[in-house]
Amino acid sequence: MSYYIIKRLSYLFLVMLGVSILTFGLSRLTPGDPAELVLATRGVEPTREAISAIRQELGLDVPLPVQYVRWTKKLLQGDLGRSFRTGQPVSREIASRFPATVQLTLAGLLVMLCIAIPTGILAAIFKNTIPDHCSRVFALVGASIPSFWLGLLLITWFAVRIPLFPVMGRGTVRHLVLPALALGVGMSARYARLLRASLLEVLGQDYIRAARARGLREQLVILNNALKNALLPVVTAFGMSLGHLLGGTVIIETIFAWPGVGRFVVEAIFNRDYPVLQGYVLFMAVVFVLLNLAVDLSYRFFDPRIRLEGGQGK
Q1: How far is residue 31's CA from residue 25's CA, in Å, rounded to a whole number?
Q2: Distance in angstroms (rounded) separating the CA atoms of residues 201 and 191
Q3: Distance (Å, rounded) from C-alpha 107 to C-alpha 140?
Q4: N or C: which end of the chain has fewer CB within 10 A?
Q5: CA-to-CA distance for 33 and 31, rounded, in angstroms?
Q6: What is the separation of C-alpha 63 from the centre of its chain, rounded to a whole number of angstroms?
Q7: What is the C-alpha to C-alpha distance for residues 134 and 147, in angstroms, rounded to an integer?
Q8: C-alpha 198: how far from its chain's center?
């Protein structure tokens, strides 16, 4: 397994190289001049001389290959650069906002798990009965409702008409309830149906019939024998969803004014803040690679028969 982990981590360098080139090139294709936006934030008239001075200050007055080489040299030293708008290090800007995104992500995933796992299990056990039909309706409605619309509904009912929770901002646990619900309910609908389909397939296997023939209680058969194997496709999808959520739940963070990474990156896009965009994409590339590795390693826990490729893993 150690060989497999080292092999997967060695791919990280190639991923970072490809992502850095794509991010650097695509960010320069966005319309607008960052120098003019920086001058606007400073309240300075964007004259030709002022724009030229700002471009020189930001290092935008040299050819693109030179800009890329300078950026990669700093990157190899662990420096993601400084934000054009705030002048602060990008790593510090991301680090200051990432905990808020992690908090919202974990809360949304907790809501999702609390709804999806019981719903999926009940729908599979009571196939083609009222619980299964109710889960289908829930999955259809939950998957069809956009997260921003659900967020607005929650604000309307539980913050305006019935003032139980705050509308915006981050502070107490009460601030977290509505955005976590808006984030988790939609995901729970998808995962409930995925778990149902996977569990139905596992329940039809021979070893499940053998466990039932030995007289084991149905609860033990479901929880100890069937559920672990049924969770394999759910874990795979869960790893990808977790990466996307950690990348910043832009819509939810914007609606609830949650001070996370998603809102910060959206502001950077409008401000043509190249260092922030480049640093964010590289950071999330590392997060996705590590999450995918963690998901692959977790397969051994859910199904010991799985062997990871590589001499040490067999």
Answers
A1: 13
A2: 15
A3: 23
A4: C
A5: 7
A6: 34
A7: 21
A8: 23
How far apart CA 87 and CA 93 sit, in angstroms, is 10
pTM greater than 0.85 (yes/no): no
Q: Which residue has the tokens 């993601």?
A: 80
pLDDT tens per residue, the chain (314 residues)? Answer: 677 777 777 777 888 888 889 888 888 887 778 888 888 888 888 888 888 998 898 888 899 899 999 999 988 888 888 898 888 999 999 999 989 988 998 999 899 989 998 999 999 888 889 989 998 998 888 888 888 889 899 999 998 898 899 988 888 889 999 999 998 888 888 899 899 999 988 888 888 888 888 887 878 888 777 887 788 788 878 777 777 777 657 888 888 888 888 888 888 888 888 999 899 888 888 888 888 778 777 776 666 666 655 444 43
Per-residue tokens: 48: 């030709």
Three-state secondary structure readout of the chain: CHHHHHHHHHHHHHHHHHHHHHHHHHHCCCCCCHHHHHHHHHCCCCCHHHHHHHHHHHCCCCCHHHHHHHHHHHHHCCCCCECCCCCCEHHHHHHHHHHHHHHHHHHHHHHHHHHHHHHHHHHHHCCCCHHHHHHHHHHHHHHHCCHHHHHHHHHHHHHHHCCCCCCCCCCCHHHHHHHHHHHHHHHHHHHHHHHHHHHHHHHCCHHHHHHHHCCCCHHHHHHHHHHHHHHHHHHHHHHHHHHHHHCCCHHHHHHCCCCCHHHHHHHHHHCCCHHHHHHHHHHHHHHHHHHHHHHHHHHHHHCCCCCCCCCCCC
148: which 2 tokens?
Answer: 């921003």
